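Review this fold:
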Amino acid sequence: SIFDQLEDQNASDCVDRLVDLYMLNTLNQAFVFIKPHAVTDKVKALAKTSLQEKGIRIVAEGSLSGKTIDEMKLIDKHYYSIASKATLLKPSELN
């Protein structure tokens, strides 16, 4: 994430890093998931339509079983950065 790229840097180093990232000329990407209790055809259609109306191009769709999500530790990886700071650092140590 951008936050991870800029974390713990002073302002001038942040600006330099932002320029480096800008020069990569990459598109933003996102992984969107619908929580299990809400997965219905109507919710999937609403999510797709809402994203497309905002000009977001959907390049792939699919589903993952709970078993796959667990085996690949996708939730753990997704929330690791936030959780590690929240559980390991004292408030005075946070930026």
